[in-house]
Amino acid sequence: MSPKSFKLSALVVLAGWLPLISAAPASNGGDSTCRKTSVAILGAGMAGITAAQALHNASVSDFVIIEYQDRIGGRAWHGDFGKKADGSPYVVEYGCNWIQGLGNTGGPQNPVDLLAQKYHLANTYSDYDSILTYDETGYSNYTDLIDEYSDAYDTAAAKAGRFLVQNLQDETMRAGLSLAGWNPRHSDMKKQAAEWWNWDWEAGYSPEESSFVFGVAGDNLTFNQFGDANNFVIDQRGYSAIITGEASTFLAKDDPRLLLNTQVTNISYSDSGVTIYNHDGSCVSAAYAITTFSLGVLQRDTIRFSPELPQWKKRAIQNFAMGTYTKIFLQFNETFWPEDTQYFLYASPNTRGYYPVWQSLSTEGFMPGSNIIFATVVDDESYRIERQTDQETKAEAMEVLRQMFPNITIPEPIAFTYPRWTSEPWSYGSYSNWPPGTTLLAHQNLRANTGRLWFAGEATSAEYFGFLHGAWFEGREAGAQVAALLQGRPCVQYGDDRLCGERIHYETLTGTSPLSQYSILNGWAVSSLYDGGDD
Ligand SMILES: Cc1cc2nc3c(=O)[nH]c(=O)nc-3n(C[C@H](O)[C@H](O)[C@H](O)COP(=O)(O)OP(=O)(O)OC[C@H]3O[C@@H](n4cnc5c(N)ncnc54)[C@H](O)[C@@H]3O)c2cc1C
Ligand SMILES: *[C@@H]1O[C@H](CO)[C@@H](O)[C@H](O)[C@H]1NC(C)=O
Ligand SMILES: *[C@@H]1O[C@H](CO)[C@@H](O)[C@H](O)[C@H]1NC(C)=O
Ligand SMILES: *[C@@H]1O[C@H](CO)[C@@H](O)[C@H](O)[C@H]1NC(C)=O
Ligand SMILES: *[C@@H]1O[C@H](CO)[C@@H](O)[C@H](O)[C@H]1NC(C)=O
Ligand SMILES: *[C@@H]1O[C@H](CO)[C@@H](O)[C@H](O)[C@H]1NC(C)=O
Ligand SMILES: *[C@@H]1O[C@H](CO)[C@@H](O)[C@H](O)[C@H]1NC(C)=O
Asked: What's the cofactor (predicted)?
């Protein structure tokens, strides 16, 4: 299909909504009392701030950013934890923590890495080879299983590429791995731990719950294209410093265009405008709106859309998955674990994913002398500990540490905390994942606009879902396209690609998407088949 015929089908579909849309203004009785603006940006995380910057760059200065919380940054969220020798607290990241995909020379650079350099964000290379492995009896070397997984993964990744090119039915990551020779028994807890370290830790979901084709493609696009390194952010201003820094390039201090502490409750949209109603009774009437709310927020149905979102949009929202990733922080009065090692992998004898990865912040290059270590759990284990008290979770974590270090008398922690992402009403989860059996066109429906309401954010990125840079790319594209529509410019140029007008959506989805549909029109700007690595 040529880009032209895509546009045609989008127009046809649009005409189909018109009766619905023209009914909408009647319900917007409060319009005249609402604050007027050209673009309402919903959310001040990475996507919202980048969308606003794209508008600013295109000389659109008439926008309003509406944000639930009292701060910019969204899921780039940090807090004070424990204390230093002088009594002041450390700053730890509850949300995003790594700059992911960097290190290739000469190739395209991850935009988040560029921002990290611009703002001198303190970060340290995460050395995944700096790992010791444990089970319930203490230290037990099973790093060979990590290597065994990696070999099978490489075989599987190449096959996922053939699936994509030949338009073959997606399968689970589990099937992809099993057929490539990695097929661990449920009772083999060391293999399960090695697998968790390699897969669940990044995806936030098990291989059973993840798409084979898009899981591998996403991995390729970040780690082959930009580089395979991950750097861990330790900046005491917080990771959000790059977002507040960019915001300050176009927003004044106390800029009246930024509404903090304002919770959106209702969104009324049509083909001629969007009205946003807030919990405090205020409203904003805009020519266009860009929502950057997380997939979790959209899935929970806490925002009332008028008219109701169309079926194709509702299906897209419920078909993609919002994962939860929980970091559990402990500070001690001493560092009793091997101080020169970054990672400690624990294989529970009973439960896969039970306090599996421990990460030392006391190590040189991180926060030496902090005596802070943190464990990570995801998915069902996250939901389980979110239902527990801090005391219950602390007792479990301590029991695991005692198993890992049986010959050490481990002191009680002097500080303990973990965020409960699934219950945060401004996020309802951590980041998105593609379940098995999805297609690119199914995902395009998540990105497509409904009338003048546009959608952006981490989850709308087909290529970088789950990552901070995904939110950046999606914010930029939505902002630039809305600016073009407002200014009556037909198209926006992205390198060799052009984007014109509204986004496409698909009323009917079939099981697969042919290679010809992997284009920027469906959110696919770069091929995942490319092996950009210089190492
Ligand atoms: C635990 C965790 C670990 C992660 N690790 C990494 C990592 O290491 N590397 C990486 O690249 N990425 C990581 N991510 C992902 C990264 O944080 C996100 O992709 C990115 O921050 C999402 O940005 P966004 O703008 O799309 O959404 P958000 O940051 O969620 O922004 C949306 C904004 O909308 C606001 N909002 C929501 N509801 C309403 C409402 N009703 N009214 C008004 N405002 C509302 C929210 O408060 C928020 O500020 C991690 C995320 C989490 C949670
Ligand atoms: C806006 O322009 C500045 C300056 O050229 C650039 O650094 C920034 O990346 C642009 N932002 C977006 C979202 O396009
Ligand atoms: C663990 O075992 C592997 C071989 O399987 C070996 O190469 C490695 O050096 C061992 N690690 C340690 C810390 O002894
Ligand atoms: C992932 O990258 C590898 C090269 O490293 C390639 O062989 C494979 O086809 C790619 N897979 C997908 C799904 O893009
Ligand atoms: C917003 O939606 C709620 C239901 O969730 C409804 O009761 C209320 O009237 C709506 N408010 C506006 C201003 O549309
Ligand atoms: C722990 O103690 C046991 C018995 O006391 C001993 O066999 C084992 O080697 C010790 N382990 C370590 C890591 O020191
Ligand atoms: C830490 O506290 C324990 C008691 O809980 C104590 O035995 C130990 O000496 C303390 N370590 C340091 C370095 O003060």
From this structure: FAD
Please state, in angstroms and rounded to a whole number, the distance separating the CA atoms of residues 272 and 156.
Answer: 47
In a domain, 157, yes or no: no
Q: What is the pLDDT of residues 204-235, one digit of tens each?
A: 999 999 999 999 999 999 999 999 999 999 99
Q: Tell whether 264 is in a known binding site.
A: yes
Q: Is 451 left (phi over 0), alpha (psi -120 to 50) or beta?
A: left
In a domain, 316, yes or no: yes
State the pLDDT at residue 31: 63
57 lines ligand 2 (CB under 6 A): yes
For residues 23 and 274, which has the higher predicted lDDT (pLDDT)?
274
Percentage of residues in the chain having pLDDT higher than 70: 93
In a domain, residue 467? The reply is yes
350-379 pLDDT, tens digit each: 999 999 999 999 999 999 999 999 999 999
Q: How far apart are CA 495 and CA 507, in angstroms?
A: 30
- Helix, strand, or coil (residue 330): strand
Residues sharing a CB contact under 8 Å with residue 120, sequence separation 6 or more, in sequence order: none
Sign, Cα dihedral of 263, 502, 52, 440 = positive
Specify the residue for token string 């659109």: 60
Query: For the chain, what is the domain count?
Result: 1
Q: According to the model, what pLDDT value does residue 530 have?
A: 77
Ligand 2 contact via 377 beta carbon (within 6 Å):
no
User: Nearest bound ligand to CA 468?
Assistant: 1
Residue type, 486: L
CA 72 and chain centroid, separation: 16
Sheet of 229-233, strands arranged across: 98-102, 229-233, 123-125
Is residue 18 over pLDDT 70? no
| Rounded distance from Cα 406 to ligand 5 centre (Å) | 58
Pocket flag, ligand 3, residue 208 (CB < 6 Å)? no
Q: Is the CB of 50 under 6 A from ligand 2?
A: yes
Mutate which of 334, 370, 408 for ligand 7? The one with the most ligand atoms within 8 Å of its CB, which is 334
Mean pLDDT on 72-80: 98
CATH of the domain at 502: 3.50.50.60
Going by DSSP bridges, is the β-strand pair 283-291/35-42 parallel, antiparallel, or unpaired? parallel
Q: What is the DSSP string of 482-512?
A: HHHHHTT--EEEETTEEEESSPP--SS--S-
Residue 4 confidence (pLDDT) above 50: no
- Whether 63 contacts 37, CB under 8 Å: yes
- Nearest protein Cα to ligand 1, atom 50: 96
For residue 43, is it within any domain? Answer: yes
Segment 502-521 shows an average pLDDT of 93
Residue given tokens 């990865």 in the structure block: 357
Q: What domain range includes position 445?
A: 35-74+239-320+428-522
Q: Look at the alpha carbons of 435, 436, 438, 439 in this order and tell me if their dihedral is positive or negative.
A: positive
Query: In the predicted model, what is the mean pLDDT of residues 469-486?
Result: 98
Distance 132 CA to ligand 3 centre (A): 9
